Every structure is written in structure tokens, then in C-alpha cells.
Amino acid sequence: MWLIIMLGLPCLAYLVVVGYQNRSLVEKDVVAALRDVVAARADLFSVSARQTQHVMELMADWLPWYQITVSENSPLRHEAMDLLNDCDTSIDILWCAYAPAEGSRFKILLTTAEVWQGTYVDQLISGPLNKPGSNIQIIDLPFGTKGQLLTQSVPAANGQGVAGILLTVLDLRYVLAATAAKPLLAFPIEMALLDGEGDVLETSQVSWGSFRFTNRPTAPRGPITMRLTPSSKYPDTEQFTWQGDPWTAALWTIVPGQLQVMAAVQMDQALAPSKLRNQLGVAVGIIVVALGAAIAVAWSQRLIRPLTRLAYQMNQVRAGNWSVRYVDEPSGYELNDLGHGVNRTLEILKKSTQEAAEAEATTTAIKKEWAVAQEVQHRTLPEVIPQVPGLDLAAFYRPAKEVAGDLYDLILRQSDGQELFIALADVCGKGIGACLHSLTLRGALRSAFHSTQGLSDIVIYANKLFARDTAATAMFATLSAALYHPETRQLSFTSCGHTPGLLIHADGQLTRLQTPGMALGVVEELPVEVLQVDLREGDLVVLYSDGISEAHDQESRLFGETRLMEVAMQYRSLSAQQVVDRVIQAVTEFQGSAVQHDDITMVVVKAVRGPS
Question: How does DSSP classify residue 552?
Fold first, then answer.
């Protein structure tokens, strides 16, 4: 079916092109035929003229004109008539004798046309008769037509004057009648004989009898003028318009200034059969293409039905209807196999979607639990930084996951002159387990702070509580803890396996704060050593978790303690919060797009001028 269309369209285009070319060829053939017909008619006149001329020469040589008598029974008359009848010229030939008794007039004595017998020549010829020599002219004949007259004078026997005149006449109707009786082509050709002015002498088209065909710009004189214009398409041809139709004509001069023959054809009429054939060819091509297209559409509709069902199924699935299934089509062939595959895929996707929905529900519940845990953990952090005379405090906390194992705490004991307890711890591990144990450790530290007095007693008491809770899990935590006494401006410090703190004096001297000891939760009986530090105005204490010193960049390089010291040293003159901001900014820029692997916690204590 598609082959029919693919072959039919080029064939249709070929028919159109060939039809156009064929029209041009037919037009050329028509013009060539016009030239041939007009040339043939001109040749007929020439042959007839030569034949009659020959007859006249024979008659002039054979007849002893000086012995001719007017007796109709003269043997010489019969011999002359036999000679004329034996000439197969298909024309009427007149022979006239000069009769002195008739004066200057010429009376026809011998003729093959009985109607002219005894007629005077001046009764036949409306114009002047040129007596000397021989000449050709067009005359009006008694039959209501015109003829071509050839005359030759016969000198007298004594050489003085003219004894008679020989005449031959060719009836112009014979030529046109022969053309009409025996058509040469499949299309009609109209013939016309024209005089020197272009007036029609004889024509096969009755309506042209009073026409004048001329290419001269002069105004017509009497007859209806048909203006001839040279054809721009075909050389040696003329064009004219009659009754609204264009005509093409070819002309041939027979006697210059006296006689010419014209053949004309109505081109549209001549081309009608060729045009009809072209139209039939194009119509057949269109029918073939249309038939192929109809068959193609019918087959396409049948073949596309499975695709339509598949598309409908996909649209239903997109709309959320997973229950729709592909049904086999008789013309589906491989598409039926594809539809079965789609059905199986939908079954698998439906099952996977159900499992994913269940998993998503579980994940959502877990996320909600994580959110609750995160909210609980955030609520355990100090909501407000306590105000302590002589100190500027700041803190920062950012977990690596939703919840973290890091914690910090700032607790005031109002009964002892606003004694401040500072704790920063890191429980091993990450996630919910570390979070829960960090909450346990926070509770133990707060309980110990409110139950004991010295820093070492606080840490020992808290360790016992934490170790008992984590004995079955083997969890532990590192700790940096400090106890500040506002009245003495003295800071007690201890570290239990934690990263060293930094003490930066106002003059730029740096001391690492660290004491021997193991992590909390390892054993219940934990030895604790305490370091005493006197804080002066401008001194800076920095406590932090290993999430800062072990922060990674994209190439897995560590931020390190050295960079931390440099940043803290550079901004030691700023407030505690500004120092925290500069350190966190430096860590964040160092990490770039690298993922944060550990919790980041930081507490900064700066000694300022206290109340006087």
C-alpha cells in the first residue's frame, strides 16, 4: 500500500511533466503541419501553372493560327479540342481566336468549358487584359468563384499585330475542395487564398469570405480586417483572434503582390485530443494514488489500533489507574507481545509501588521519630547563654546527622556566687544511639553538679552514673569540663580523653589545656586530675570537639588543630561570639562541598572586666 503511494506520486508528477512536454511537442507538430499544408498548396499552384504553360506552348507551336477559321466543323478545331482534352491537368483551359471581323474584341473559339463557347474574352475578365507576352492574374469566374488566369498572345502570320490569345484558367475552388475532401491530419485546418491586399478570394471557412487578413497597420477598406501578428513562440507563423479564440496561421506567397495561400488552425481545438489524453493520464494517476492512500489509511488504522490501545494504557497509568491491561488485537502481531510485556511490567511496578509505599510509610514514621529525637536533643542544650560577671560566653553546635553524640552544657549554681559549670562531651558513635547516651550523660552531669561541690567530685559522680547505664553497651564518652569561680576568677579544668582545650592569653601566649585521664563509662572508679587556671582580662579559653580538628575537605585533608590555633589567635581580641563565628566560617570554607562526617561543637569563654 505504501509502495503504491511511493510509486504513484512520482508517476503522477511524471505524467504532469510529460503532459506539459507532450503539449509543446504537439504544438510544434501542428505548426509544422501548417507549414507543410500551405507549401503543398503553393506547389499545386506552381505545378498547375507549369502544366498550363506547357499546354499553351504546344498549342502555340502546333496550331497554324493563320489557317484557323470560325467554322465550328473545321477539322482543325476538332484536332485542337482533342489536344486540350488529352492534357490531364484537372483544369479548364480556354483558347481564344482573334477575329478581325469583331474588331478589337476576342471571341472564344476553342474551349473545354462549353459554357464559354462563343463568349467574348472581355465578358469573362473584369479587369484589363494585357495582350503582349504572357501574364498571370486573378479573375472572377461565372460560377461565382475566382480563378487564376494565364494568358499568352499569338502573333499574326505576317508578324504584324496579334492573331489571337491563348488563355488557361485554374479554378481556385479545386484546391480548397481537394484539401477539405482529403483531411491530412486529425485536427481541422482551414485554408484561404488571399490576394495582394489580403482579401479572401476563396476559403474553406465560409465565415471568412469577406475577411481581410493583413499585418499592415493601415485601416481596413471594406472587408472585415483580421489583424495578423507575428508569433513570438513559433517563427514564420502569424497569430490572429476570431470569435474569442486564438488562431495560428502560416502563409505562402504564390504570385508576389497578387496571390498567397494561408493555412490556419485553432490551437486549442488541435490540442484538445492531446490535452484529453494528458488529463486522463493525470486522472488515472490521481485515482491510483488516492486508491493507494485509501488502502494505506485503512491498513494504517488497522495496524495503529494496537498502538492506540498501548497509548491509552500508558495514559491511564499516568493518570494513576494501574488496573488497566492491554488486550490482544488480531493485527497486533509483535505489538501484542509488547502489550503482554507492558502488562507484566505493570504487575511488577504495582507490587513494587505497594512495597515502596509501605517502605515510605515506615521511613516517614522513622523520620518523625528522628524529628522528635532531634527536638528533644535541641531542647537539652542551653536555650540562653548564662550571664556571668567577668565572662563573655558563646557556643556552637551542628550535628552531622539529625541527632548527634556531642553535647555541651552551661550551668549556674546561684547559691555559691554564680559558680559556672562548663561541660563539652563527645559520645562514641553517631545517630540515635549516640544521641540517647548523650542525653544520659547530660543527666548524670547535671545530677552530679547539683549533688557535689568540687570539679573532680562532679566528674567522678557523673562517671559512676554513666558507666552503670552503659555497661551492657560498652559505650563511652570523652569530656572537657571546667568550673569557674567568679569571686576568685579561677577556672578549674579537667579532660577525660577529650581533645585538648586552648588557653590564649591577652599577650598572645598559648597553652593547651589537657589533663591525664580516660573516657567516661569505661570504668566506674575513674581517677580525675584537675588543672587550676587564673583568668585575666583578655584571656580566651576554647573548648571544642574533634569534629572541628578532623573536618575534611574534598581531598580528604584535615582542618587540624594548627589551623584552629591560628584562627583563634588571630581573632582573640574579638568577642566570644565573634571568635566562634570566625572559627566556624574557616571550617566551612575549608570543607567546601565535602560532606560533614562528624558533629561540630564549640564553647568559647573570654575573660572580660568584671564589676568593680
Answer: B
Are the C-beta atoms of residues 68 and 76 closer than 8 Å to each other? yes
> What is d(CA 411, CA 419) in angstroms, rounded to the nearest whole number?
8
Structural contact between residues 166 and 121, judged by C-beta atoms closer than 8 angstroms: no
Chain position carrying cell 485530443:
273
| CB 316, CB 342: distance < 8 Å | no
Cα dihedral across residues 34, 37, 38, 40: positive or negative: positive
Q: 176-266 and 381-607 share one CATH topology?
A: no
Buried b (16+ CB within 10 A) or exposed e, 16-31: eeebeebeeebbeebb
CATH of segment(s) 176-266: 3.30.450.20
Alpha-carbon dihedral sign for residues 110, 114, 117, 122: negative
Q: Distance between CA atoms of 606 and 93, rounded to whole angstroms?
A: 155
Query: Each residue of 431-448: b (16+ CB within 10 Å) or e?
Result: bbebbbbbbbbbebbbeb
CATH class, 381-607 region = alpha beta
Cell triple for residue 250? Answer: 502560416
pLDDT at position 9: 58
Three-state SS at 518: coil
Domain extents in the chain: 43-171, 176-266, 293-379, 381-607
- Classify 556 in phi/psi space as left (phi over 0), alpha (psi -120 to 50) or beta: left
Angle, alpha carbons 60-61-63 (nearest 5°): 70
C-alpha cell at 474: 560498652
290 contact partners, CB below 8 Å, separation of at least 6? none
Q: How many residues does the chain have?
A: 612
Grid cell, residue 6, equals 511511493
- Separation of alpha carbons 266 and 188, rounded Å: 8
- For 300, the 3-state DSSP assignment is helix
pLDDT tens sequence across 26-69 = 667 777 777 777 677 666 666 666 666 666 666 666 555 434 44
What the block records as the C-alpha cell of 457 is 567530685
Q: What is the DSSP letter of 452?
A: -
pLDDT tens digits along 174-216: 656 554 434 445 667 888 878 778 888 778 787 887 888 887 7
The span from the CA of 203 to the CA of 225, in Å, is 15
Angle at 272 between CA 269 and CA 276, to 5 degrees: 165
* Average pLDDT score over the chain: 76
3-state secondary structure 259-298: EEEEEEEEHHHHHHHHHHHHHHHHHHHHHHHHHHHHHHHH
Per-residue cell: 165: 490569345
Per the CB < 8 A criterion, the answer to whether 439 and 376 are in contact is yes
How far is the C-alpha of 26 from the C-alpha of 524, rounded, in Å? 123
Please provide the DSSP assignment of 44-107 as one string: HHHHHHHHHHHHHHHHHHH--GGG--S-TT-HHHHHHHHHHHH---SSEEEEEEE-GGGTT-EE
Angle between helices 2-62 and 267-318 (to 10 degrees): 180
Cβ atoms of 587 and 599 within 8 Å: the answer is no
pTM (predicted TM-score): 0.46
Fold of 43-171: Beta-Lactamase (3.30.450)
